[in-house]
Amino acid sequence: MWFNIIDDKLFPLMNGSDNLFLDGVMTSITSAYTWIPLFLSLIFIIIRNNETMRQILMIIFFALVAVLLSGGVDDAIVKPLVMCVRPLNEPMLGLSVDTVKGVSESSFSFFSAHSANTFAIATFVALLVRSNILACFMFGWAALNAFSRVYLGVHYPTDILVGMVWGCVMGSISYVAYDYLFYKHSPRINYISSQYTKTGYSYGDIDFVISIMVFTLAVITIFF
User: Fold this and answer.
1) Cα 167 to chain center, whole Å?
2) Other beta carbons within 10 Å of 40
3) How many whole angstroms separate alpha carbon 6 and alpha carbon 1?
4) Residue among 96, 95, 181, 171 at smallest CA distance from 138
5) Which pLDDT tens digit goes with each residue over 79-95?
6) 89-115 average pLDDT score
């Protein structure tokens, strides 16, 4: 099966490094708690760049729907049905899997909810804000989270690839639903300005979100 071929080729290249510094960095990157400042900064620009509470709540609601459809469906339905054992728990792989002390997962592997969730968020934000530079940073952040899962030995490459695709699809569906429902009864405004994106998000606020992301990565690199 082509899934197995991809995993056989890519997993040894992406899994582990026997480097304590990288082990610490990847363990921090994969933790959702690490990215709380980023999530708060995204909520900040949503509140700051939308005039009505109705629109703000709808955006946050559909962003949560994107995560629920991506990781929630995976954890509740797909993983129990497929029952693929994680690499670090696979007896056939044995000592060939590089693991990191303190990292363990008992649930199933296929597909990666981390990848699905982060790519769903990245897709939803990219469509909402319409800033090329923010989109690049968001998808780079999602890809880094996805890579960390293989590095730590808790997922195969195909787990994260499927999670990436599923997350992008769910993020797109959630945004389209939001866009349709909100603008069905509200005027659509396209901004033409050097200070705002066409959906009305301030470039200054976008720079703030990017700064938070870069600062978080810097803290991870220095202290972990």
Assistant:
1) 8
2) 11
3) 9
4) 171
5) 889 888 888 787 776 66
6) 79
Query: Does the CA dihedral 32-213-19-162 come out positive or negative?
Result: positive
Residue 110: how many other CB atoms lie within 10 Å: 20
- Contact yes or no for 40/215 (Cβ under 8 A): no
144 exposure class (CB count in 10 Å sphere: 0-12, 13-18, 19+) = middle
| pLDDT tens, residue by residue, 13-70 | 888 777 888 888 999 999 999 999 999 999 999 999 998 899 999 999 999 999 999 9
Q: Hunting for tokens 């290249």 — which residue is that?
A: 13
Degrees to nearest 5, angle at CA 35 with 144 and 58: 105
Tokens (6 digits) for 69: 């459809």
Helices (H), 50-131: 53-67, 73, 79-82, 113-129
User: Which residues 6+ apart lie within 8 Å of 128 measured at CB?
Assistant: 46, 59, 175, 178, 199, 201
Q: Tell me how far apart the alpha carbons of residues 216 and 176 are, in angstroms, rounded to a whole number.
A: 30
Q: What is the largest CA-CA distance in the chain?
A: 60
Q: Determine the Cα–Cα distance for residues 145 and 93; give it in Å rounded to an integer.
A: 23
The answer for 220, left when phi > 0, alpha when psi is -120 to 50, beta otherwise, is alpha
**Counting beta carbons within 10 angstroms of the beta carbon of residue 203, is it exposed (0 to 12), middle (13 to 18) or buried (19 or more)?**
middle
Q: 118 is written with which tokens?
A: 């982060």
106's tokens: 């008992």
Residue showing tokens 């389209």: 176
Q: How far apart are CA 100 and CA 9, in angstroms?
A: 21
